[in-house]
Amino acid sequence: MVFDKPVEDVRALSTEIIRRVNEDTRRIRNIEQRIDKLENSISTLEEAILTQTNEIKINLERIVQKVTAFSDKLIGIESEILKLNKEISKAATKSEVKQIETFIDIVNPITAKFVTKDELGRQLRELSLKK
Questions:
Q1: Rg, C-alpha atoms of the chain
Q2: Distance separating alpha carbons of residues 14 and 8, to the nearest angstrom
Q3: How far apart are CA 73 and CA 31, in angstroms?
Q4: CA-CA distance, 105 to 111, in Å (whole number)?
Q5: pTM over 0.70
Q6: What is the DSSP string of 24-93?
Q7: Domain-by-domain residue ranges, the chain?
Q8: DSSP symbol at 11
Q9: 41-93 pLDDT, tens digit each
Q10: Which has the closest alpha carbon to 22: 30, 11, 34?
C-alpha cells in the first residue's frame, strides 16, 4: 500500500496535467480561430477599401474631365462675348440710325420736293421781273 499512494498521486497528477494541456489546447484553438476570422475580416475590408479607392479615383478623373470641358466651354463663351462686344461697339447706335433716317428722308426723291433747272430759271426770271 505504500506504493499505491504514489501511483495514485502520479495518475492524478498526470490526469490533471492532461486535462490542463487539453484545456490549453482548446483555448489555443479558439484563439487561432478568432485570429483566422479577424484576418479574413481584415482581408475583406482591405479588398473593399481598395475597390472603393479605385472607384473614387475613376470618379474623380471623370469629374476632372468634366470640369476641364466646362472650363474650355466657358473660355470659348468668354471669347465669343468679347467678339460680340467688339462688333456691337462697331454697330450704329439708335440715335445714329435716327440721324441716317432723317438724312434719307431729306434726300429721298419720292417724298422730297426738288426743283428742276428749268423751274429754277423761270422762278429767277419772274423774281427779277418783279423787282
A1: 55
A2: 10
A3: 62
A4: 7
A5: no
A6: HHHHHHHHHHHHHHHHHHHHHHHHHHHHHHHHHHHHHHHHHHHHHHHHHHHHHHHHHHHHHHHHHHHSPP
A7: 92-131
A8: H
A9: 999 999 999 999 999 999 999 999 999 999 999 999 999 999 999 888 888 78
A10: 30
